[in-house]
Design goal:
The complex is a heterodimer of chains A (about 110) and B (about 500). Chain A has a single domain (about 1-110), classed as Potassium Channel Kv1.1, Chain A, CATH 3.30.710.10. In chain A, helix 3 (about 45-55) packs across helix 5 (about 80-95) and helix 5 (about 80-95) packs antiparallel against helix 6. Chain A has a three-stranded mixed beta sheet with strand order 2-1-3. The N and C termini of chain A lie far apart (about 40 Å). Chain A is mostly helical and about 110 residues long. In chain A, about 25% of the residues are buried. Chain A has helices at about 15-20, 25-30, 45-55, 65-80, 80-95, 100-110; strands at about 1-5, 10-15, 40. In chain B, about 25% of the residues lie in helices and about 25% in strands. Chain B is built from 15 helices and 27 strands. The chains are: A mainly alpha (about 110), B alpha/beta (about 500). The interface of A and B includes residues 24, 89, 109, 110 and 112 of A. Chain A: Belongs to the SKP1 family. Chain A: Keywords: Ubl conjugation pathway. Chain A: Pathway: Protein modification; protein ubiquitination.
Chain lengths: ~110, ~500
């Protein structure tokens, strides 16, 4: 299990497989600096909760079929407000979660076009 | 509050939140992220954001995916070009066709100029000539520009020009390429160095030096996993070609998927399909003959034996009717297809099924057999696979390719498709023959051609009158666009009749 600490003091304990979807966290695990939990200075608890929700769903082999995942992603991304969306983009970029970054950026692109 | 992010080159960057708050949310994002977002738009839309402000203009350089398609410019019906600035549509004046075509090439020039030297990952270009002639030299200038900027991993060129242009051979030594798709060009292969290429798709291309060119290209991409060679132009014409490659080699140890349409070469000196899982092969015969002698009198060139011998490790195999015919001519004995679980055969009234008994016998692990059509040329060599002409030589060993076949699922496509001398009775009898002979069959599915509805009643009546079947657990399904009919044989041994389930419009056709 890995402990993540948001900028506003919330802690989240999650399975390693879920956390490893973030390349940033994966590197930290490799470098073995996760003893006392990982502080994420610029991700608030609210955003981190959303990210964990996404990562839990997308853990390999657990989320369901490709079609089901697509439908889930669509609902996930359509039910968040703009400022949450942008914060998610920044956080997904910082945490280096490619699939979430692409999902959020695609959403913004759809809004522009 | 300070925001950190990772820029495209992997370094940490920082900016202050207050600095962002003043602008709208999108503009507040770091440049690289805006560029990433822009790459999800079509290139035209992304380019139009460059008029928003000078900052946005320079942001366009971060868009590393370019997708350029001239269809909206060349289509004479779409004479009005519309674009959007700050959400409000602006309609530009109607242009004369010539102007439109020039404007596409100008557009691309401008897009590439805006991008400067930044590297581009994905470049897709689709050009159809139409009435206006696009100068291929300009097109190749664009391609060379993109390649020279470095970092290109995905290149997709579709060209339908009046004269096929010769593609710059520098493409084949772009070591960053992972995916390459080319269509409508002439290929002159010089040096090939594509160590990262995993996907190669060549459609309607012409190699300047025939088989040698293809061999050379393949030997330069050892990591290739997906290969599609479609309509290589050695003057293919219907079933035969007038010239063929002398020699083709497939040095592709990592290839997993192969789709190959070609004329049979004279020789296949080196074929490495160690990793091949799925293959779709359409090998056309090449013949030597003259029209004055008539079509029947020709000699075959090409020998696919070496190719077939090495493809025998596949699990999934699709054969066109031409390939089926080639198998008859080239292979004295069909190799053992030890891993084959799924086999799909295309039938053609001009091609016999002589290779089929051998194929079935040598596929000990076959589970699914798909016959695209049942109608084929009658010959004496169909063995026990079909009923067209029984083997008259009583001394010959009784054929057992069907009766010892492990096939569990048999699908017949285009069932009911009628050709000149053939009628539905032959096809019904053929299906009955399968049911009576194949001991491991669990499912027989007939995909019925909906244009022959008048025969449906006849088919189902005949199917219901079956005597014993070889496999008691076989389920029969008849599927068409608007009807579905299935039967299941009862588990009790005394039950000779199956239970039938009907659904769809068929219920009205069937009178009880």
């Amino acid at each position: 299990m890995i402990v993540l600490k948001s900028s506003d003091g919330e802690t989240f304990e999650i399975e390693e497989a879920v956390a490893l979807q973030s390349q940033t966290i994966a590197h930290m695990v490799e470098d073995d600096c996760v003893e006392n939990g990982i502080p994420l200075a610029n991700v608030t608890g609210e955003i981190l909760a959303k990210i964990i929700e996404y990562c839990k769903k997308h853990v390999e082999g657990g989320g369901g079929s490709e079609e089901e995942l697509k439908i889930w992603d669509k609902e996930f991304i359509e039910n968040i407000d703009q400022s949450t969306l942008f914060n998610l983009i920044l956080a997904a970029n910082y945490l280096n979660i490619k699939t979430l970054l692409d999902l959020t950026c695609q959403r913004v692109a759809d809004m522009i076009s | 509050m300070i925001i950190y992010w990772i820029a495209g080159n992997g370094t940490y960057q920082a900016t202050t939140w207050e600095h962002c708050e003043k602008r709208d949310l999108i503009s507040g994002l770091p440049d690289a992220l805006i560029g990433h977002i822009l790459s999800f738009l079509t290139t035209k839309e992304a380019a139009s954001t460059s008029v928003l402000s000078t900052k946005w203009r320079h942001l366009f350089a971060f868009v590393s995916n370019l997708d350029l398609d001239d269809s909206i410019y060349v289509d004479p019906l779409k004479k009005v070009i519309s674009t959007r600035i700050r959400g409000a549509p602006i309609l530009l004046e109607e242009y004369a066709p010539n102007y439109i075509s020039t404007s596409f090439t100008d557009f691309v020039d401008r897009v590439l100029a805006l991008q400067g030297d930044s590297s581009i990952h994905k470049f897709s270009l689709k050009i159809e000539d139409g009435d206006n002639h696009v100068d291929p030299t300009r097109v190749f200038d664009w391609i060379l520009n993109v390649l020279q900027r470095g970092g290109a991993s995905d290149l997709n060129l579709y060209m339908a020009l009046e004269m096929d242009p010769v593609i710059p051979s520098k493409i084949f030594s772009t070591e960053t390429l992972v995916k390459l798709k080319l269509s409508g060009t002439i290929i002159h292969v010089e040096d090939v160095y594509l160590p990262k290429l995993k996907t190669l798709y060549l459609g309607s291309v012409n190699f300047l030096n025939h088989g040698l060119g293809l061999t050379k290209l393949l030997s330069g991409c050892h990591m290739l996993e997906d290969l599609v060679l479609d309509s290589l132009n050695w003057f293919l014409w219907k079933f035969v070609s007038f010239s063929n490659p002398k020699c083709v080699s497939f040095d592709t140890p990592n290839l997993v998927y192969l789709e190959f349409t070609d004329a049979t070469a004279n020789n296949y000196p080196k074929v490495n399909f160690d990793s091949l899982v799925e293959a779709k092969i359409d090998l056309k015969a090449s013949f030597q003959g003259s029209f004055s002698q008539g079509f029947e009198d020709y000699g075959f060139m090409g020998n696919a034996t070496a190719f077939v011998r090495r493809i025998c490790n596949v699990k999934i195999f699709y054969l066109s009717s031409d390939t089926l015919e080639e198998l008859t001519f080239c292979c004295e004995s069909i190799p053992l297809f030890i891993n084959l679980t799924h086999l799909s055969i295309e039938s053609n009234p001009k091609v016999g099924w002589e290779s089929l008994p051998g194929l079935l016998k040598n596929s000990p692990n076959l589970e699914t057999l798909v016959l695209q059509g049942l109608v084929h040329k009658s010959t004496y060599r169909c063995g026990d696979v079909c009923l067209c002409k029984p083997c008259e030589d009583k001394e010959k060993e009784i054929p057992t390719s069907l009766s010892s076949s492990p096939v569990k699922v048999l699908k017949v496509l285009k069932f009911g498709e009628i050709f000149d001398d053939h009628d539905i009775d032959e096809q019904i009898n053929q299906v009955k023959h399968f049911l009576q002979t194949m001991p491991n069959l669990e499912q027989l599915v007939l995909y019925y051609d909906p244009s022959f509805k008048e025969n449906v009643t006849k088919v189902t009546t005949e199917l219901q009158k079956f005597p014993r079947v070889a496999s008691r657990k076989c389920e029969i399904q008849l599927i068409s666009d608007d009807l579905y009919l299935s039967s299941r044989w009862g588990s009790s041994p005394s039950l000779e009749e199956p239970d039938w389930v009907f659904s769809g419009d068929f219920c009205q056709l069937y009178e009880e």
